LON peptidase substrate-binding domain-containing protein
Amino acid sequence: MIKAADLPDVIAVFPLPGALLLPRAKLPLHIFEPRYLAMLTDCMKTDGRLIGMIQPRDVPGSAERRLQAIGCAGRLTGFSETEDGRYMITLSGISRFRVREEVQGFQPYRRCAVEWAPFTRDLGHAEQDAAFDRDGFLLLLGRYFQAMNLSTDWGNLKDAEAELLINSLSMLCPFEPEDKQALLEAPSLATRRETLVALMEIALRGGTEGERLQ
């Protein structure tokens, strides 16, 4: 089992609005920009093969795009190349991290000094949610999918473990970047499930900007 002390102090980060990676979940990505192709090449030379997924945030009155304080690192576990030189990769979520500072260098991509200690739970076994009402959750989910014109394999959803179900839906549902960040920062699986339920209920009510979770 990986320990926080085994993780690097500095990692490459991939700022991507609306992209959410969670521990023990998998995120497919399409890599084609030259700077991220360089990041991928460098990543494959390291033992951990870690890339930090993080959302950018706009600074009012400035063209600069800063980074959110919290992201999630994934290990490169899937890799294929297309005929035109692009890559399809899969990141397997390892642990969330908190950004200490951005590290300047000659690389064309961004790197950050990070701390892992606040998220030691991410490195353990799958989380449980004792209060999870699967039947009620799936009823709400069905209404949400119908309203959003989404489809899924309901057989797999009904059989999925609670953590896999909640985290996969948090990653896949078309929420706003601010809402994805709230799901990422949830301190427990139960809190993430409550946040996910609230977001679906807001969407079903035709929620406004002011109703988004902060």
In short: Residues 134-207 form one domain. The longest helix spans residues 189-204. Strands lie at 10-15, 26-31, 50-54, 56-58, 65-67, 70-81, 87-103, 110-115.
